Amino acid sequence: MLKPLGDRIIIEVVEVEEKTAFGIVLPDSAKEKPQEGKVVAVGTGFLTDGGQVVPLNVKSGDNIIFSKYSGTEVKYEGKDYLILRESDVLAIVE
Amino acid sequence: MLKPLGDRIIIEVVEVEEKTAFGIVLPDSAKEKPQEGKVVAVGTGFLTDGGQVVPLNVKSGDNIIFSKYSGTEVKYEGKDYLILRESDVLAIVE
Amino acid sequence: MLKPLGDRIIIEVVEVEEKTAFGIVLPDSAKEKPQEGKVVAVGTGFLTDGGQVVPLNVKSGDNIIFSKYSGTEVKYEGKDYLILRESDVLAIVE
Amino acid sequence: MLKPLGDRIIIEVVEVEEKTAFGIVLPDSAKEKPQEGKVVAVGTGFLTDGGQVVPLNVKSGDNIIFSKYSGTEVKYEGKDYLILRESDVLAIVE
Amino acid sequence: MLKPLGDRIIIEVVEVEEKTAFGIVLPDSAKEKPQEGKVVAVGTGFLTDGGQVVPLNVKSGDNIIFSKYSGTEVKYEGKDYLILRESDVLAIVE
Amino acid sequence: MLKPLGDRIIIEVVEVEEKTAFGIVLPDSAKEKPQEGKVVAVGTGFLTDGGQVVPLNVKSGDNIIFSKYSGTEVKYEGKDYLILRESDVLAIVE
Amino acid sequence: MLKPLGDRIIIEVVEVEEKTAFGIVLPDSAKEKPQEGKVVAVGTGFLTDGGQVVPLNVKSGDNIIFSKYSGTEVKYEGKDYLILRESDVLAIVE
């Protein structure tokens, strides 16, 4: 199991199929929107300048939208994950 | 539903028709002013360096003026939204 | 009405006619001095790192001098305003 | 009257005549030293990160040495002033 | 023995053999993933702005994933180590 | 008298004659070492983010080593001085 | 004696002879590893944002590894020293 540190979270990226109004699938270079993911693990919290740990707002199982190009890709036991900081999470999809 | 994190807010952009004194609609490149939007969701607040959460001043339903080029565009259930930080909000229109 | 957020203020710019010693009005590119404005609305205050709100020193009705090129131009109900942060205000004219 | 904000001060610049050992007045481009000024107004103090106002050390009437190229030139009622932050003041001349 | 200071940790890098789906070993330039390591020593903790020491979350013996290109290589008694800051650690492998 | 502000100090630069092993005086461009000076005046102290004044460690009469290229040259009553921040002082020579 | 200020330390650099697996001494440009030094003097401590002095972890006599290219070279009474900040120290060799 991967246990993220501090304010980091681990997600599985959800591939969103991109179709135009006429149902045509757009090639990759035409997609510029944020991406969706499912949270699989969260760190213990954000360490403030004052040395306090503030628990994260995101929890395992949450579906999130995050800024494209943020985070680091990790392969673990044959699966791809992305490790983000919680500040890269734009919104939770409820 | 999209739930923004921290000091982030989600808005629907309001298209402002731009006319000159003679009623001529300006093309896009001639518009350089901030934009207007309607707030549809707000985060729980701004996290200070000291680990304190300060509630946002903006609330759902507010009409706001924000700095052009700020925020991230998100498409959710067929509609376009913009996710901003509250610090990108210049003023509330009352 | 426009209500600025936090440490922002809204001003009407006061056009200062610029004359040389011989009374000749200078063209725009020859003017490099700070500008004057009249405050029409102020935010609730400056949010410190510690999460405290410090009220602004500038109030509605004040005439101020501000750094040129600071702030964002806003058009509202046919009038032009400038939204500044209080830190862009150099001095109050009393 | 001009009332500077926060940690700003307003000074009148004192022109220091620059002579070489042989009494030749140097042209402007050959002068690279800090400048002298007389303080005519001071702000209420420096606002710390914690929201505290710390009174300035400089007071009206002080002769100071300041870093060249700092501050903003202001013309007010026909006279030229310079608005500096107190941190641009290098030393007080006593 | 090497004793890292503050929020630094010392690790032995674990070489991960990189194979494609067909079992072909990839050359170095084709690998762009974070790396794995085993922690051999940890510092006393992270010094906050307030002068407090916060103990590290990583401990000797932990297997970690860290950002490629972070840290400084050190040779000590014939062995290669990498000295990282704990903030370069992405996750602990459990 | 020049009275430096805050964490600033005023020094007289001590010219160190630079000789090679064979006693040859090196020209200026060949010298790249820090410089020595004698402290002639010190400010009231360093202002912390919290608004506290921390007295300086350096005092009048101290011989110091400082980073070359730091500080501002000042001419006062015919003598040359250098105004530094205490953080530019590398060490006191005792 | 040289007395470093604040979080600075003074070290004598230890020249590490660099040999390849075949015992060939590498020329300088081929060495890219951190360097070793012996601490000869330490400052009174690190000044936090809050104005607190935190004593250093390194003490006189310690052998340390430090990041190459950090610090300032000083010649004092015919000997070469390096003045570093404690944060440039990677590890203590025990």
TrEMBL record, chains A, B, C, D, E, F, G:
GO terms for cellular component: cytoplasm. The keyword Transit peptide does not apply. It is found in: Cytoplasm. It comes from the Bacteria. SUPFAM superfamilies: GroES-like. Its main location: cytoplasm. The keyword S-adenosyl-L-methionine does not apply. Keywords: Chaperone, Cytoplasm. CDD domains: cpn10. Gene3D superfamilies: GroES chaperonin. One of its GO terms (molecular function) is protein folding chaperone. Pfam families: Cpn10. NCBIfam families: PRK00364.2-2 (NF001531), PRK00364.2-4 (NF001533), PRK00364.2-5 (NF001534). PANTHER family: 10 KDA HEAT SHOCK PROTEIN (PTHR10772), CO-CHAPERONIN GROES (PTHR10772:SF58). HAMAP family: CH10 (MF_00580). Belongs to the GroES chaperonin family. Together with the chaperonin GroEL, plays an essential role in assisting protein folding. The GroEL-GroES system forms a nano-cage that allows encapsulation of the non-native substrate proteins and provides a physical environment optimized to promote and accelerate protein folding. GroES binds to the apical surface of the GroEL ring, thereby capping the opening of the GroEL channel. Heptamer of 7 subunits arranged in a ring. Interacts with the chaperonin GroEL. This is Co-chaperonin GroES. It comes from Rummeliibacillus stabekisii.
